User: What shape does this take?
Amino acid sequence: MIETIAGIRIPDSALAREATELVRDVASPLLFDHSRRVFLFGALRGQDLEYDAELLYVGAMFHDLGLTERYRRIDQRFEIDGADEARRFLHQHGITGENADLVWTAIALHTTPEIPLHLSAEVALVTRGVELDVLGIGYGTITDEQRAAVTAAHPRPDFKNRILEAFTEGIQDRPATTFGNVKSDVLEHFLPGFHHTDFVDVIKNSPWPE
Assistant: This one.
């Protein structure tokens, strides 16, 4: 059945339906609704762009898989967990090469400011969707009616506090992976005893004599 929210058509291919069910099965309702909003907000931000809606959908739906119990690891950034799983998923469906790598990049870079916006539309729009839903960046670029339609379909009760809890739970066992990225701020606030690795200290304390 074709589903349209805020004028955006949700991809209805077999691949998209399977992606939806995979995320629904492993993610909390909080992360599932957030991921759907990321697709919708990204698509709304990209209405004047040409992009592959199916690839954008997979990128948005898988972008936080690294925060889920099933897919999170402790030896790499959570973004890479989701990116790796998305690429495996696409390969299983016969999507390889540049398109699979594009989705990997969209997920891997979704917490890295600015760089995604200079890459392909699919990469940029995953970041645009995340930025709008989590940080409110671009809030005024879509209408009140569009925001209302998206949040009616995928509500965000107490989202600010609950997403911070999800971030903390998903990365607290791998604090070193937050070096150089925004998630170190989360652990500074919510993980007792954590202090972020200082880039200047790393340089000054390296084995180089000068």
Observations:
- Strands lie at 3-5, 8-10.
- The longest helix spans residues 29-45.
- The CA atoms of residues 188 and 195 lie 6 Å apart.
